[in-house]
Every structure is written in structure tokens, then in C-alpha cells.
Amino acid sequence: MDKILPLIEIGHVHFGENKVQEAELKWKEVKKKYPNIKLHMVGKLQTNKVKTALKIFDYIHSVDNYKLVEKIIKFEKELNKKIKTFVQVNLGEEYQKNGIIPKNVNQFINHCSKNLSLNIIGLMCLPPIKENSEKHFFYLNQLKNKVGLDHLSMGMSNDYLIAAKCGSTFLRIGSKILGERNTS
Question: How far apart are CA 110 and CA 43, in angstroms?
């Protein structure tokens, strides 16, 4: 938190985390002191951690399956909290990555927003590593427009300038600002 508190004190509001337990430990008290903070879950959210996640996060960027959506809806009702979500799109249709494949995005969004009342505000992607990220970001922007959403969560420390050029409204640039993650 040593690097984050100065950012909060100068007025930065949006912060992202990859892990539910880590976020809960790090942000619970900070959010009490600074209630305007908006915390984003940018990592994979496991269904068994949804209730805890909804207590601390304001946004979830990794909605990628119906089981997860059902858990979010259940705990939103229980906690009387509406969360903002992004549908994760697997642009490269890579087997090792999560996300809805592009041809199923419209159907997934329609079902989740109309039938389940999930508050979907945008799309999120992690483009294939060894491919041109610009073409994927451009495609996701087109897909966002096609399905009628407002936001894009794309771009990390290595490609955020390209993502911004392609219309990203939420950039995930933690290591560029805060330095590399300490894993010890």
C-alpha cells in the first residue's frame, strides 16, 4: 500500500486486483477510509469466491461463463449490491484462456443482461501473446459497438498505448505505475 496511498491522496479512484483474498486484506480498511475508491477484479474469478469478491469489488472484468453469472446474481441479491461487469472475450479462441468466443458474445450478453439482469458495461480481452494486439483491440472495439456496450477493458503495461488508441476505456497498467509484483 506504500505506493498506492499517495495515488489515492492525489485523487486516483480506480484500482485493480487479481486475487480476491489479497484484495480483501489490502483494501478492506482503505475502502472504509476512502469510500469513493472503485476496486476492479481483473483476474479470473472462481465461483467459490464470488460472495467475498462482491463485498470488496465494484467491477468484475472477467465474466466468462453462465455458472459465474448465476453466482454473481445470487450474491448481488443477498448483499443488496449491483456490480458492474465486463464479459471476457477469448479473441484468439485459445484453449488455455478463459472467455467467451467471439461468435457467442452477443448471445451470452443478451441472455445475461436481459434474462438474468447482469449489469454488463463492457468487454474485456487478453489478446494472444504472439500476435498483433492492435488488430485484436480494434476487433474488440467493433464487437463492443455491435453489441451496444460502452466500455472496453484492454491493454496492460506492455500494450496500453495501442489499447488506448483502439478505444480502451479501462487500462490495466499496474506494473508500469507500481513496479513489478513482489511474489515472495
Answer: 23
pTM score: 0.89
Long-range contacts of 146-150 (CB under 8 A, 24+ apart): 146/106, 147/105, 147/106, 147/109, 147/123, 149/109, 149/120, 149/121, 149/122, 149/123, 150/121, 150/122
Residues 162, 15, 169: CA angle, nearest 5 degrees? 35
Give residue 115's Cα distance to chain centre.
22
Cell of 134: 492492435
The answer to whether 59 and 87 are in contact (CB under 8 A) is no
Quick: pLDDT tens for 62-120: 999 999 999 999 999 999 999 999 999 998 878 888 899 999 999 999 999 999 999 99
Asked if 16 contacts 174 with a C-beta cutoff of 8 angstroms, the reply is yes
